[in-house]
Specification:
The chain has 70 residues and is of the alpha+beta class. The chain has one domain. It is 39% helix and 23% strand. It has one helix and three strands, in the order βββα.
């Protein structure tokens, strides 16, 4: 089951702007609402993948990885 996040979006003149409330730094700007939502999905996916890789690179060889649900 995919995890859900909150996209905060707003139309400002010729642009749609938005960000993901739960993940700082994930924000985008596009000409249409549909393009904005797709850009947010892509950027969120990339940010989460980067954060996982970065965490694993810093932890060293002996670690446990557990999934948790909230």
């Amino acid at each position: 089951m995919p995890q859900e996040y909150t996209a905060i979006i707003k139309k400002t003149e010729d642009w749609w702007i938005g960000w993901i409330a739960e993940v700082p730094g994930v924000n985008c700007q596009e000409r249409s609402k549909e393009e904005l939502l797709e850009s947010l999905r892509i950027t969120l996916r990339e940010a989460l993948e980067f954060n996982i890789k970065e965490s694993l690179a810093q932890v060293g060889p002996d670690f446990l990885k557990e999934k948790i649900a909230v």
